[in-house]
Write a structure and sequence with these properties.
Number of helices: 24
Strand content: 5-15%
Mean pLDDT: 82
Helix content: 40-55%
Shape: globular
Low-confidence stretches: 1-33, 734-745, 755-760
Oligomer: single chain
Structural class: alpha+beta
Strand order of the largest sheet: 3-4-5-7-6
């Protein structure tokens, strides 16, 4: 009889886990511990264990994602016809080396090259025109593809069929337009309108989120707002199947929202709609802020939790109904049937919610788990996560740089590691008396929920700090109080409401949702009001974030004590992030806002415009709790009609020159001058003019080490950087191999009348 824990294979041997526990336990390191040779032997044992059979697959998406990250860090667009064959050659080489000891290294290199190539090809596939300068009143005709209902204004995406602007030769594919609330046209309609168009919003400071890149991969080349009325006209064609599908799903979302609106109102209605359809823009700002400050913001974005609840409720409901028929239970695989029904429900939920990145990742993860149930495989494993990550990154490589992807996969990695490693050790055996007594009173479920909340919150902390400049110290408390109610009441009631809608009995389920949502809002507001609930974090750049990511991956994927190297790396990343020096001067891309760090260590604002969004982002990145309208921002700032001046931390003067006659005095007295005019020759101040801002975008300046007069400048668009979503100015565009010259603009060839000769 084979030994316990092993199974006899076809050749008469035994199959089991690798490496054998006894083999690791009998390593030479235990014979002569404390010596250098013993330590080296132990490290070799750990490395061999980590490189064992089946341990390579979870690292493939890591290398694939690293290749995508390298692509987005490039200064210029790679040449596709060189990148793709190179990646193919490296993949073929890895295949040929599958029996060689270098196979793991070859696979990692090939995966990185494949990620780089996939990102390159995806950008080439998405290629479209991006507006470079504002256009004030072009006439647009096109199809409405999406519509967003927001708190103050509505917004829609227009697929442009015709664009009439006699001053410019620009043809945009898609534009995103804002309109007065309640006036957005229906999805699928063909409209005619005038609009003011602007280039996509660039980062408001170096290192901040790139909205232009996000819009580029949505196929949007400009944003703006409608001027005047919107006319519904007859379309030249049907618009295609994709547009009809979008219109159908929008009608379904509107119908669900309308039914919920009959019973609920305010934030309860907005959150119920967000949980079922993914439309969360109608939630008021105070409640939205409280949700994110308390650590419950993940509830508002449809992700793994929502998909798991939907699939789980459908799975157990279908299985319970089928189990009522004894003949089915004894004859047919009702568990697999239930998994198939849950997969269909998850797919419908994906389509209904708009299929955002986090929802796609959640669906693929859930689908892999359910398919594993259908084929009698283990469901929650690192391989499941690896397959889901590869699918998402292969379909949308740009998801890697999106906070939703980063936070979703970090949390999921932590939870899978908890299930695979932590939970077996916590609840070792069912007959363990303390564990059994705790489980009897629900202690196991409480501990599991607390651990899951703690691990997921800890894993997402670096990304929340990087993108949103905040941490949630009371996230575990808020999740323990709110999530059981959301899981047991809110989401099941929402699903039952959807099922009851065709029969007209959905009102009672919306009221049940309301009870749970009100409790969740109350918990969020209570936690957000606790002392120290708002954990602010100053901007720290991509270096500490990459280090923290490496630490999380090592801590989650490694199995031997080598995993604790990940904790050490996370500690170093934390210290690094706290040691990053903040800029002394910030200049907006239009030159109308300048923030200067004063002697009190805080930013003081010179503002010639009303760009509250930029100021709010600057303050958040500086871990400053003040708002854009705080009067202390103007302390120390002196202004007149010619311009403004403010003293920096070292006593030097920073000036914003509004008129040319102010530049002579500013050149003599200031150490830094921002102006829209060309500075006179011999100007002693360092000058930031409109031409430089046009080339480089927003600037962050830090004093050079050991100098009080010179600055190190970080730019949103450093010199010679040229990417499709952030094109270099026309006079700076470099030419490289494979570039196609842009078609020349038509030139009027009509000669002047005075130049005509008698024989012409």
């Amino acid at each position: 009889m084979p030994e316990r824990g092993r199974a006899r294979d076809r050749t008469g041997g035994y199959a089991g886990t690798w490496p054998p526990r006894k083999a690791v336990a009998a390593s030479p390191s235990q014979v002569s511990s404390g010596t250098l040779p013993a330590l080296a032997a132990r490290l070799r044992d750990w490395v061999r264990a980590e490189a064992g059979p089946g341990r390579l697959l979870p690292w493939v998406p890591v290398a694939f994602g690293a290749g995508i990250a390298i692509y987005f860090a490039a200064d210029h667009e790679p040449i596709a016809w060189i990148v793709v064959p190179t990646a193919g050659f490296l993949c073929l080489a890895a295949l040929l080396l599958r029996r060689h000891r270098l196979f793991p290294v070859a696979v990692m290199i090939a995966a990185m090259a494949a990620g780089f190539a996939v990102a390159t090809m995806n950008t080439a596939r998405m290629a479209h025109v991006v507006l470079k300068r504002s256009i004030y009143s072009p006439m647009l005709k096109g199809f409405v593809e999406t519509r967003e209902v927001r708190e103050r204004t509505d917004r829609f995406v227009l697929r442009v069929v015709r664009m009439d602007d006699y001053r410019r030769h620009v043809k945009l594919d898609r534009v995103r337009l804002s309109v007065r609330k309640g006036t957005a046209p229906a999805v699928g309609s063909f409209v005619e309108l005038k609009a003011r168009l602007q280039p996509p919003l660039t980062p408001v400071r170096p290192g901040s989120y790139d909205f232009a890149r996000d819009m580029y991969f949505q196929g949007i080349g400009a944003s703006g707002f409608v001027m005047g009325a919107i006319k519904i006209v007859d379309p030249p064609d049907g618009g295609g199947i994709a547009l009809r599908y979008a219109a159908l799903m929008q009608e379904l979302r509107d119908a669900i929202d309308a039914r919920i609106r009959l019973v609920l109102d305010g934030d309860s209605r907005a959150i119920a709609t967000a949980l079922l359809t993914g439309r969360r823009d109608a939630i008021t700002t105070p409640v939205n802020d409280a949700m994110f400050i308390s650590g419950l913001g993940h509830v508002l974005s449809i992700s793994g939790y929502h998909m798991a609840v939907v699939a789980g409720v459908v799975f157990f409901a279908v299985r319970a109904l089928l189990a009522l028929v004894p003949a089915l239970t004894a004859t047919f695989p009702i568990k697999k049937w239930s998994a198939a029904a849950a997969l269909a429900a998850a797919a419908f939920y994906l389509l209904l919610s708009g299929a955002e990145v986090a929802t796609q990742r959640s669906f693929f993860m859930t689908a892999v788990v359910l398919i594993a149930v259908m084929v009698d495989r283990r469901a929650i494993t690192f391989r499941t996560l690896a397959v889901a990550a590869m699918i998402v990154l292969a379909i949308a490589p740009q998801a890697l740089v999106h906070p939703s992807f980063q936070m979703s996969f970090a949390a999921t990695l932590g939870l899978v590691a908890l299930v695979q490693v932590g939970m077996p050790k916590l609840f070792a055996t069912p007959d363990h008396s303390p564990t059994a007594r705790a489980a009897l009173w629900g202690g196991r479920e409480i501990v599991t929920l607390a651990l899951a909340s703690f691990v997921a919150g800890l894993a997402t902390t670096p990304y929340a700090a990087f993108h949103f400049h905040r941490v949630t110290p009371y996230g575990v408390v808020a999740n323990l109080l709110a999530m059981p109610v959301v899981s047991a009441l809110v989401m099941p009631a929402g699903l039952l409401g959807l099922a009851a809608m065709p029969f007209g009995f959905d009102g009672v389920f919306w009221r049940l949702m309301d009870f749970g949502i009100e409790w969740m809002i109350a918990v969020a507001q209570w936690v957000a009001a606790l002392p120290g609930a708002i954990g602010r974090m100053a901007a720290f750049g991509t270096g500490p974030l990459i280090a923290a990511t490496a630490g999380i991956i090592l801590l989650g994927l490694l199995r031997t004590p080598l995993r604790w190297s990940g904790a050490a790396i996370i500690g170093l990343a934390t210290a690094w992030s706290l040691a990053v020096a903040q800029p002394d001067i910030l200049v907006s891309a239009d030159g109308r806002n300048v923030a200067v760090r004063g002697g009190d260590g805080r930013l003081h604002l010179i503002s010639a415009g009303k760009d509250a969004f930029t100021v709010r982002e600057w303050l958040a990145a500086d871990a400053d709790k003040r708002g854009p309208a705080d009067p202390s921002l103007a302390e120390g700032v002196s202004c007149d009609e010619a311009g403004c001046v403010v003293k920096a931390s070292d006593g030097g003067i920073v000036a914003l020159a509004r008129r040319p006659d102010a530049m002579e005095d500013d050149c003599r007295r200031a150490e830094m001058m921002v102006t829209a005019w060309q500075a006179p020759e011999g100007c002693l101040a360092q000058v930031v003019d409109q031409e430089r801002l046009r080339r480089e975008g927003a600037l962050a300046l830090r004093r050079a080490p050991g100098s009080t007069k010179h600055f190190v400048v970080d730019a949103v668009r450093p010199e010679r950087v040229d990417r499709p979503w952030s094109p270099a100015p026309a006079d700076e565009k470099p030419t490289s191999i494979g570039d196609r010259p842009e078609p020349a603009r038509p030139i009027d060839a009509t000669p002047a009348a005075d130049d005509l000769q008698p024989d012409d």
